[in-house]
Amino acid sequence: MAEPTRVLIAADKFKGSLTAVEVARHVAAGLRRVVPGVVPVALPVADGGDGTVAAALAAGFGRREATVTGPLGRPVGAAYALSGDGGTAVVEMAEASGLRLLPPGRLAPLTATTYGTGELLRAALDAGARDIVLGVGGSATTDGGAGMLAALGARFLDAAGRPLGPGGGALAALDRADLSGLDPRLSGTRIVLASDVDNPLTGPRGAAAVYGPQKGASAADVAALDAGLARYARLLDGGRLADAPGAGAAGGLGYGALAGLGAAFRPGIEVMLDVLGFRAAVAEADLVITGEGSLDEQTLHGKAPVGVARAASGTPVVAVCGRLTLDAAALAGVGIERAYALTELEPDLERCVAHAGPLLERLAARIAHDYL
C-alpha cells in the first residue's frame, strides 16, 4: 500500500488577516477537500518579527508570561516561549516594546523605551534559559536598546551623573555608558539576534532614517534620533559595531544586543527553522507550502518564504500569498516553483483581507489538484 502524501505547511502570517497558525489550518482544510488521505504537517514559521513566539508555541514550546514595562512606561503583559527542557527561550521584543502596544494615534518616537524587552530577557534568565533567541521587529522604539540594557543592569548617565530618561531622544544628553552592572548570567548565555533587517545603526539606511517615520518621527526627530544613536555608539563601543548587519533592527535594539550583550546576528528565518526542527520535518515531506501576506521585492531579502525554500533540500516548494508582485523567474530564482495569490480569486484587497481564510482554502484546493 502506498504511503500517504505528506505536505509540510511552513508559512508565515498574512499580516492583518491571518496568523501563521491560521494559515496552516486553512491550507490543510483546502488540501483535504481534494485529497482526503493527505497528511498535512503544520509548522508555522516567522522571521523574527511579530509572530515569532506564536511559531515557537505551535512547535511545542511552553508559554511563559511576565508583566513588563511597555514602550510608554506603563505595565503590559508579555509572553515568551520556553523549550521543554527549559534551556532555550524565544523572546519577541514586540511583545514588550512593540508598535502594537501603543494606543491608537499615540506614537512616541522620542520617548518610547525598550526597557520591557530587557525585563523579558531577565524573566527568561530567571526561568533557566541559557540559549535565547531574541526576535526583533515591529518596534515602537528608536533608543538603540539602551532601555533593554538598563533593565539588565547597565547605566546611562548625563554630564551631571544622572540617569537618562527613556527613549532615543534622551541619548543626545548621554555622557557615560557603564555596562559593569550587567546581569552576570549574561556572560554564560548565548543570545542570537534574529532579524530580517540588516540595516546599520545610523546614516541614510539607519534605524532612525528608514524606520523612524513609521513610528511617528518628523524630519527633525529623525535627525535628532540619528545624532543621539551616533553618540550612543561612540560611547558604548567606539562605534565598532554600528555598521554590523542587524545593528539598525528594531530602532537600534539590534545594536544594543550586539554591542552590549555579545549577541550573534543571524537571519531570523534561519534561526527559527533551526528552533522549529524544519530539517527533520522536510525530510519526510513530498511537498512544501510556504507563504506570507505579500510576495514582493522585500520577500527576496531574507523573508520567511525564501528561507523556507532555500532550506527545503530539493523538496518541491510552492507558495500562497495575499498579493503577488514577483514574476515566475524571480520565484524560481529562490526555489519557489509557483505562487498562488488570493487576488487571483478576489481582486478586491479589502475583501481578500476580510475573507482570507475561505479564499486560502480554495487556493489550497488548486494546489492539491496541481501537485497531489
TrEMBL record:
Belongs to the glycerate kinase type-1 family. Gene3D superfamilies: Glycerate kinase, domain 1, Glycerate kinase, domain 2. Keywords: Kinase, Transferase. This is Glycerate kinase. Its EC number is 2.7.1.31. The keyword Transcription does not apply. InterPro entries: Glyc_kinase_flavodox-like_fold, Glycerate_kinase, Glycerate_kinase_RE-like, Glycerate_kinase_sf. It comes from Streptomyces hesseae. Pfam families: Gly_kinase (PF02595). SUPFAM superfamilies: Glycerate kinase I. The keyword Transferase applies. One of its GO terms (molecular function) is glycerate kinase activity.
